[in-house]
Amino acid sequence: MNKRKLIVSVFDNQPVDRTPVGFWFHFLDQPEKADYLADPGLLDLVVEGHRRFFKAFEPDLIKIMTDGFFAYPAPGPPVKKRDDLSRLDPVDPSHPWLRGQVELARRIADLQPDVCRFFNIFSPATCLRFLLGRNLFCELILREPETVKVALGAMARGLSVLAQAVIEDGGADGLYLSVQNPDVNRISDEVYRRVLAPPELAVLAAAKEAGGRNILHICGYDEVKNNLDFFTAYQAQAFSWAVNVEGLSLGEGRRLFGGRAVVGGFPNTAGSVLTSGSRNEVEAFAKELAAEAGNVGVIVGADCTIPSDIDLKRLEWVRQALNKPIRKTAKPAAKPAAKSAAKPAAKPAAKPAAKPAAKPAAKPAAKPTAKSASKPAAKPASKSTAKPAAKPAERPKKEQAK
Question: Which CB contacts under 8 angstroms, 24+ apart, belong to 140-143?
Answer without folding.
Answer: 140/82, 140/85, 141/182, 141/187, 141/191, 141/195, 141/196, 142/186, 142/187, 142/191
